[in-house]
Amino acid sequence: RNMSSAGPEGRKKMRECEGLIDSLVYYIQGAIADHEPNDKATENCVCILHNLSYQLELELPESYAQSIYMQRRNISSNDKTPGCFGTRSRKVKEKQQDTPLPEEKSNPKGVESLWHSTLIRIYLSLIAKSTRNYTQEASLGALQNLTAGTGPMPFAVARTVVQKANGLPSIRAMLHVSHPAVKKTAVSLLRNLSRNTSLQSDIAREVLPDLVSILPECVPGSDIACETTVSICYTLFNLTQSSSHNARLLLSAHGLPKVIAISMNDSNMFSKASRAASVLLYSLWSHTDLHSAYKK
């Protein structure tokens, strides 16, 4: 667990170690099957997998990445060849949002397991069943890592979490835990998921009222609570930017007074939270059909 947080070279060596990832997954599967989700070794295994999933898109070799994501579209020679990982033009990124992953291997090995639906479901199961804060946070964090990029893998993982594995109820429950780091990571995961336009209506229906309910009445004092508030505002921004319906949902959940109060925080007008709330307000005002409702 300590070695897995030793930086890019350490992660690379551990991902390449034959049988290591498979063994970690095997152990966690056994713990869940035996109804032992609070086992300390399970916590260690999940924390290792969380660390090994960090910056996975950027750190996989390009040749390996290309073999995983064979583009199934004819792209003219004038376009940049879309890489599977790493930064590319906005146009290519938009195309890749809807590019499906190739059919999953029924028996993934090694690094392939890190984004496989089997492990995604294991994380969601641990989020729902474990009462260990570190296990919950590491499971949420691994999903946050896997959904952080802009290539096809993050969007495929997001679709699996939201639509195939029905993970939103488990994530929503983590919004209401007392442990601030677990709550922060859950919100950060939702922020990543909400970037996927095809999932926004599902996410808004399932968790938007909960996000509004945990939004503070003003900018909070602690750094971790402030970061959580920033992520909530940007998640709400993603969900409402192109949807008048979702903006109305925020309004009916009594979110507007909270957002205004955060944006007008007198103690530090330039705080990240105040800025994020202001960006959200500006976006909400773009829905002209709601102006009269806002004024009321």
UniProtKB/TrEMBL annotation:
The keyword Glycoprotein does not apply. GO terms for cellular component: adherens junction; cytoplasm; intercalated disc; nucleus; plasma membrane. Its main location: other. InterPro entries: ARM-like (IPR011989), ARM-type_fold (IPR016024), Armadillo (IPR000225), Plakophilin/d_Catenin (IPR028435). It comes from the Eukaryota. Keywords: Cell adhesion, Cell junction, Repeat. It is found in: Cell junction. SMART domains: ARM. One of its GO terms (biological process) is intermediate filament bundle assembly. Residues 79-109 are annotated as: Disordered. Residues 94-107 have a biased composition (Basic and acidic residues). Belongs to the beta-catenin family. This is PKP2 protein. It comes from Eulacestoma nigropectus (wattled ploughbill). The lineage of its organism: Eukaryota, Metazoa, Chordata, Craniata, Vertebrata.
